Amino acid sequence: MIGRPANDEMVEGYRDGLDMNSPEPSANRSFSYRHGFKNGRADRTGKLWASSYEELARMADEAMTLDEGR
């Protein structure tokens, strides 16, 4: 991340995303979890969903900021 490390929810989502048997998360999961899940799934499948590291870092910070507003 640009300004802060990944939070626990993001790490949990990433780990779940690596498991191809895990279902896609619904809106009841945090923004951080869903961001981590997308990255784990992308790493597992090789299907990128962002164009650069900077874009991913910006989206991670945005997810954490949105969670803080919940």
What does this protein structure show overall?
This protein is mainly alpha-helical and 70 residues long. The chain has one domain (8-68). It has three helices and no strands. Helix 1 (8-18) packs parallel to helix 2 and helix 2 runs antiparallel to helix 3 (53-68). It is globular, with a radius of gyration of 11 Å.
Number of strands: 0
Rg: 11 Å
In terms of per-residue confidence, which ranges show pLDDT below 50 for 5 or more consecutive residues?
none
What's the end-to-end separation, in Å? 21 Å
Specify the number of helices: 3
Proportion of residues in helical segments = 55-70%
What is the averaged pLDDT score? Answer: 91
Q: How many domain regions? A: 1
Largest sheet: none
Residues in β-strands, percent: under 5%
Dominant shape: globular
Alpha-beta classification: mainly alpha
Helix/strand order? HHH
Outline:
60% of the residues lie in helices and 0% in strands. It is an all-alpha fold. It has one domain (8-68).
Any descriptors?
70 residues; mainly alpha
List the helices and strands and how they pair.
Layout: H1 8-18, H2 31-45, H3 53-68
Helix pairs in contact: 1-2, 2-3
